[in-house]
Design goal:
The protein is α/β, with parallel strands linked by helices. Helices cover 36% and strands 31% of the residues. Helix 1 links the parallel strand 2 and strand 3. The longest helix is centred in the middle third of the chain and has 15 residues.
Length: 121
């Protein structure tokens, strides 16, 4: 699956891995495109097999809003019902700060790289 790319807009690619699905997101997620972000999360969850992991690789994101984080946390809860784990890869200190400032550090599993997210380290 792949989104339609426009300049500085949210877009993504997804690929399968033995552990589940890796979704790489680019651009930024803010109020004007949160619905596209939610669609990406729902579509990813729909394609992930039971007992697998969805890794959202956000290292190429420039910005994530609190609303985007709430949607990610909600999808994580919804996916647990299908025994699917959702994990976020994020390296930007600015986005990590938003996770903390929005009070989402307990609701979102954030990892520094894809390998550690796939392993749950």
């Amino acid at each position: 699956m792949e989104s339609h790319r426009q300049d500085h807009e949210l877009h993504w690619t997804a690929r399968t891995a033995p552990e589940g699905l890796i979704v790489q997101a680019f651009g930024q997620v803010d109020a004007h495109n949160e619905s596209a972000w939610q669609r990406m999360l729902v579509e990813s969850a729909a394609t992930a097999p039971e007992d697998s992991t969805i890794v959202v690789d956000g290292r190429s994101l420039d910005f994530m809003s609190c609303g985007a984080l709430v949607a990610l946390a909600k999808q994580s809860v919804d996916s647990r019902q299908q025994r699917v784990t959702v994990r976020l890869v994020i390296a930007q200190s600015s986005i990590r700060r938003i996770i903390v400032e929005c009070g989402m550090e307990d609701a979102i599993s954030a990892y520094p790289d894809v390998d550690s997210a796939l392993k749950g380290d």
